[in-house]
From TrEMBL:
Compositionally biased intervals (Low complexity): 176-200
Organism this protein belongs to: Paracoccus subflavus
Identification of the protein by name: Uncharacterized protein
Region (Disordered), start-end ranges: 167-209
Source superkingdom: Bacteria
């Protein structure tokens, strides 16, 4: 039988990026217009859902490689009336994004590294580029969809190759004296690299404390 009689060997039409794929992505926050200055949520970036949950509506665009221009949509949790778990997952993802974008080992607790994990507001995250680990979850209808739950930091062996940066010691205090070398913090589109004493890193919003 010919290829137009037997379709068992035809490629599956699944449009999903395979689970575990590492890709450089750029985050665009789709503004929801919800602000709460007491939490540090300003600029209209946050969205408040019908259940009372608050989140950042993230659109992650793959910038290069096999899946360039593909988009992954993921909500970054800020608050849930059900408890702190969703917000903690959101904060963990943002920490990983900052580590990845600014070339910081997760084990680096130096003053410079801690300063680089602070932001002035969500505008600092809008446009940030980092390496994401693509995952597969389910949407509201129960169908499979790609999502991003974690970022890849300089601790990963493939970080420098994917990020396109040469390792450079950041001068931190890594764990056990053998933390991987880190790169100099990469400037986010809205946030140039600054030393710890620079005003740009001085204010830590209450939601990130």
């Amino acid at each position: 039988m010919g290829s137009w009689n037997d379709f068992n060997d035809a490629q599956s039409n699944s449009n999903l990026i395979p689970k575990g794929t590492l890709a450089k992505v750029r985050l665009t926050i789709r503004p929801g217009g919800f602000d709460d200055a007491s939490q540090g949520w300003t600029g209209g970036y946050a969205t408040r859902g019908s259940t009372g949950a608050v989140y950042l509506n993230g659109e992650f665009t793959v910038t290069e490689g096999q899946y360039a221009r593909r988009k992954v949509f993921t909500l970054i949790g800020l608050y849930s009336p059900k408890g702190p778990d969703w917000a903690n997952m959101g904060r963990s993802l943002v920490r990983g994004m900052l580590n990845s974008a600014r070339g910081i080992s997760d084990n680096d607790m130096s003053a410079e590294a801690q300063a680089a994990r602070r932001i002035n507001g969500f505008a600092d995250l809008d446009g940030i580029e980092f390496i994401a680990r693509i995952d597969i979850g389910t949407d509201a209808s129960g169908d499979d969809k790609n999502e991003i739950r974690s970022a890849v930091t300089p601790d990963h062996r493939d970080y420098a190759q994917i990020m396109g940066t040469a390792p450079l010691q950041f001068g931190g205090h890594g764990a056990a004296g053998h933390a991987p070398q880190q790169t100099t913090p990469a400037a986010a589109p809205h946030q140039p690299s600054q030393p710890a004493s620079a005003p740009g890193f001085a204010g830590r919003p209450s939601w990130a404390q």
